[in-house]
Specification:
Helix content: 10-25%
Radius of gyration: 28 Å
Shape: globular
Number of domains: 4
Strand content: 15-25%
Distance between the termini: 8 Å
Length: about 750
């Protein structure tokens, strides 16, 4: 059996805590924590709600926190029989909230609730905080924050800005005469308002954060004006690639997201929910929860929370929806992947396969591999003879390798080094000592999850034991048996971190300007594959394969690093088709997620997929604003018809669709993507228009869900008997070689 995410279903609830007194009769009192779970409060504040029996009113209740009365800060709603408000002054650790009644005519049982408060600098559940960890005082100063303390924390600041008619932000001071260049906006709930924004900045969980919302009627530094707000919260999660150890870079464009603000959304942003800062999405999820808690305590409970963001920002949307139920109510991921970790599976293959092909060409420039499109046979991803690689433009390609590029060569080779090589990464302003002593890998970044291996480095999940590279191409006759055997004989694997060395040119750019042309260049000096950190064949014995470290896969899945398909909220997945540009955001990813949704519970009707043609000028159509409007209709339907399913509440435009480069609809409907998940179906209109590719593991036989980190194994003779190799029958000599390559057997996906 394959060890995949399908073998375990992860459910890590972080929902509004309902703390119910003993007994469930009509004289019980309930206490709800609206801003977080009861054991995940931060910053000493919590918005609570006391739910009373219909027979009594608030005057009959006493509400105490650690022995002190707090009922005075709670507002009574007679219609709903509740007391709601923000209690402050919680100490770090456990706090006791006690509700009692003096209503003598009723047997109102007292309730005692434990509220656990944590430092605003964290952590809450992510474990010991990462060290070293570098603040970003320049960006903090740029957004008006004071110099950071030892935990990168600073006091909250609030100011106001307005959007000019030219689309720029300008400072606004309370009481100033209305500027002539101030723009106006019409919100999603129909208010026509001056475009004035209240902008709160601060630090949470060691990261910078921002909360922005329209504040047209009044501008108060202490108390937010909620009249301009449409009662909806928008998270902007940022993409990128990084491996932690820093506070991250602030993004004004995302923090002051115009398309959200103009519609009346409150916009929340944090450098801790940015993949350009780190990919420890346990810390990221924790930060998002703390930021939403801040919003609810200081502002209000939103009607719903929607998220936007591209690439790594899309990954966060999918994983936080799965791991933290109630954090998000709707998501609009763009250029998505289902998660980051499963991308490292085929990404780790890229350099191995590219090295084998390129060295084959170095030895024989007339090899059929001179046609770059042939690489798709084994890599699965797109490749082109028409796209010039960046390395060729700088003369860093062997003369026997012709013009061309692949998605692997242009993207995944370099990202794999960042994931696996403990020496390659860095962070701004790092000290020489920390640069040397820090484990600069994704696994080191999230070492609390992966735990420490025997060699002192973090455990890692990558495994290629039994993987038969190029199997599908062998079976369909497009890859010769000799190439199939030679590729798998020489492919190899990544060294253990303890055996790795620093990368060369082109990863260390300075080395590219100091090449010694009297010595061998490839791969000793120019090494785009990272081959110096591969375990390779000595020419006589097959190259070894790597086994995932014990516990790493299980720990990653338990931490929610893998998308299991448990996404139960409205989703509009957006993508511009950039396959011809060999962009890393390949088209198959939206459907990988859809397959996981189906694998989880048989239903993916909550996910809508929209594809757009690319713009020839590179200024691609931005569909997020339109998706926000469609999603707002969808959520309105959900609120009006809670008895209906998510799918039944879809508005008319929430359909699978494809569009041209200007955003004009080409086709929409339930069948437009036919032929991708089920190849036996006749291809739909959008499928015909948008070619999808696969990856090296799918070519090797892995499922479309791309979720198998370590495959189950079968003897080669069993694989032969089952017809795994199609019509190919290996010779006795070939069979001996195969068995030497795969002594433990081959993958049975």
């Amino acid at each position: 059996m394959s060890l995949s995410l399908l073998s375990r279903k992860i459910f890590i609830p972080v929902v509004l805590a309902s703390l119910v007194a003993c007994g469930a009769d009509d004289t019980s009192v309930d206490v709800n924590v609206l801003s977080s779970e009861k054991d995940q409060i931060s910053g000493g504040e919590a918005r609570i709600q006391v739910v009373m029996p219909e027979q009594i009113t608030g005057e009959h209740l006493k509400v105490q926190l650690n022995g002190s009365d707090v009922k005075s800060v709670l507002m009574e709603d007679l219609d709903n029989h509740t007391l709601t408000g923000v209690i402050t002054g919680l100490v770090e650790g456990e706090n006791r909230l006690k509700v009692t009644s003096d209503a003598e005519d009723y047997d109102i049982k007292p309730i005692n609730v434990v509220l656990t408060n944590h430092s605003l600098s964290g952590p809450i559940f992510s474990g010991p905080q990462q060290q070293p960890f570098y603040c970003n005082p320049d960006d903090m100063e740029d957004i008006g924050l004071a110099a950071p303390d030892e935990n990168c924390m600073a006091d909250v600041v609030v100011s106001f800005k307005y959007l000019t008619t030219a689309g720029a932000w300008a400072e606004y001071t309370q009481g100033m005469e209305r500027p002539e260049d101030m723009s106006t906006t019409v919100t999603s709930d129909g208010q026509e308002l001056d475009f004035v924004v209240r902008w709160e900045r601060g630090t949470i969980n060691r990261f910078m954060y921002s909360i922005a919302m329209l504040s047209s009627d009044s501008q108060n530094l202490e108390t937010p004006d909620l009249e301009s707000w449409n009662k909806k919260l928008l998270f902007y999660f940022r993409g990128g690639t990084a491996i932690g150890h820093g506070q991250g870079d602030f993004s004004n464009r995302r923090a002051l997201y115009v398309e959200g603000l103009k519609r009346g959304y409150a916009v929340a942003f944090s450098t801790g929910t940015s993949a350009k800062t780190h990919y420890n999405l346990q810390v990221g999820g924790e930060t998002a929860l703390m930021l939403k808690e801040r919003f609810i305590t200081e502002y209000a409970v939103p009607d719903y929370t929607v998220a936007v963001g591209q690439s790594g920002g899309a990954i966060q949307q999918y994983l936080y929806s799965q791991n933290h139920k109630g954090l998000l109510d709707a998501i609009i991921p763009s250029f998505s992947y289902p998660d980051m970790l499963s991308q490292t599976i085929p990404a780790g293959d890229c350099g191995l396969i590219e090295r084998w092909i390129d060295f084959t060409l170095m030895a024989n420039p007339e090899s059929h591999w001179k046609d770059w499109t042939q690489r798709t046979l084994v890599e699965g991803m797109n490749a082109s003879n028409d796209v010039a690689s960046e390395l060729s433009e700088y003369g860093l390609v062997h003369p026997n390798i012709p013009k061309g590029a692949s998605e692997c060569s242009e993207n995944w080779n370099s990202l794999s080094t960042l994931v696996y090589n403990p020496h390659y990464g860095t962070v701004d302003n790092v000290s020489p000592e920390d640069q040397v002593s820090t484990e600069w890998t994704h696994f080191g970044d999230a070492i609390n999850v992966y735990e420490v291996a025997d060699d002192g480095y973090a455990n890692r999940t990558w495994d290629n034991v039994g993987v038969q590279y190029g199997l599908a191409a062998l079976v369909d006759g497009t890859l010769t048996p000799d190439d199939f055997i030679d590729l798998n004989f020489h492919a190899g694997t990544w060294k253990q971190e303890s055996d790795m060395v620093q990368e060369g040119c082109p990863y260390i750019v300075e080395l590219c300007g100091a090449l010694d042309f009297t010595k061998s260049l490839f791969p000793e000096q120019i090494d785009p594959w990272a081959a110096r950190n591969f375990e390779l064949s000595d020419g006589t014995a097959p190259a070894p394969r790597a086994t995932a470290d014990p516990g790493a896969i299980e720990n990653a899945m338990a931490a929610g690093f893998v998308n299991t398909g448990d996404i139960q909220i409205p989703t509009i997945d957006l993508r511009v088709n950039l396959e011809t540009q060999l962009d890393m955001h390949n088209t198959i990813q939206s459907f990988v997620t859809r397959q996981r949704l189906i694998n989880f519970d048989g239903d993916a009707s909550n996910q809508v997929i929209w594809f757009y043609d690319p713009s020839e000028e590179g200024d691609h159509y931005d569909a997020v604003p339109e998706a926000l409007d469609v999603m707002d209709d969808w959520m309105s339907n959900m609120a009006a018809n809670p008895e209906n399913s998510i799918s039944a509440n879809k508005p008319l435009l929430a359909k699978d669709s494809c569009f041209d480069a200007e955003g004009v609809l080409v086709a929409a409907g339930d069948d437009v993507w036919n032929g991708i998940l089920d190849e036996s179906q006749e291809k739909g209109v959008c499928t015909e228009r948008n070619k999808t590719y696969t990856n090296s593991r799918m070519v090797a036989g892995a499922p479309l869900s791309n979720d198998v980190f370590k495959c189950g194994l079968q003897p080669i003779t069993t694989a032969l008997d089952s017809g795994l190799y199609g019509e190919w029958v290996p010779t006795d000599e070939q069979l001996v070689t195969l068995k030497s390559i795969f002594p433990e057997g081959v993958c049975k996906f």
